[in-house]
Amino acid sequence: MNEVTNLLMNHRSIRHFEDKPLSREQIETIVLSAQAASTSSFVQAYSIIGVTDKEKKAKLAEFAGNQSYVAENGHFFVFCADLHRHDIMGQMENKDVIPAIESTEKFMVSVIDAALAAQNAAVAAESLGLGICYIGGIRNDLEGVSELLKTPDRVIPLFGLAIGYPSKKNDQKPRLPLQHIYHENEYKQDEAVYREELEMYNKIISEYYDERTGGKRKDTWTGQIAGMLEKQTRMYMKDYVQKKKMDLR
Ligand SMILES: Cc1cc2nc3c(=O)[nH]c(=O)nc-3n(C[C@H](O)[C@H](O)[C@H](O)COP(=O)(O)O)c2cc1C
């Protein structure tokens, strides 16, 4: 264990922030850390939009299902998959890049790049003593988000990242057992073992909720997640992504 691994293993999402904006220096450190992440073939297929305008933040909070911490934080970032600049680059270099940038592969590259950059930003923020919460809720209404942030074709806002000075800290959420997540040399497919490990984890999660809610909630993890997956959500996504000229072939 060292300072970095301690920091990583001490993560928890923060959903209550002080009313105190991040300094320009903090914002730049966070963005430069994001940019330092590895990027597939040096393609740098993402953009980060910082939102400081109060009305825009309020609108984003509304899109995200009225999550108050989208509006109330130290700074709000939106991470986007971005192949727009690659379209321009093709024109600059007089090369037909369109079939490639409209492929599922390049769509995946841009999403992976954005996620890696975001996690670097999150860790950088936590290392500065700040708290973070990712906000996938903005995908409830990506048409609205695109219009609000004026994103062009080939740019998909993926999630927000609220950062700020924590005013309330949650307990850490226990993760799946390591042996359940980590396979060596081949994927373990013994379903009995799989179920046993999930049952073991269910006990840990039920106890976590029981303690945290004073006995009001005792959800299991499999119950909670299967319940969520039973409902189809944001089914407009494929059409939206394709309308934005990504993932077309
Ligand atoms: C891409 C992504 C989107 C998320 N969206 C939301 C969100 O909209 N609202 C929220 O409160 N938490 C959101 N979260 C946070 C998760 O709920 C949280 O990471 C998870 O429950 C584990 O808790 P922990 O981060 O405290 O360990 C999101 C996390 C990720 C990675």
TrEMBL record:
What Pfam families does the entry give?
Nitroreductase (PF00881)
Q: What Gene3D superfamilies does this protein map onto? A: NADH Oxidase
Has UniProt tagged this entry with the keyword Oxidoreductase?
A: yes
The GO terms describing molecular function are: oxidoreductase activity
Q: What does the UniProt keyword field contain? A: Flavoprotein, FMN, NADP, Oxidoreductase
Q: Where is the Nitroreductase domain?
A: 9-165
Q: Keyword Ribosomal protein on this protein?
A: no
| Top-rank taxon, per record | Bacteria
* Family matches, as InterPro entries: Flavin_OxRdtase_Frp, Nitroreductase, Nitroreductase-like
Protein family per UniProt: Belongs to the flavin oxidoreductase frp family.
What protein is this chain from?
NADPH-dependent oxidoreductase
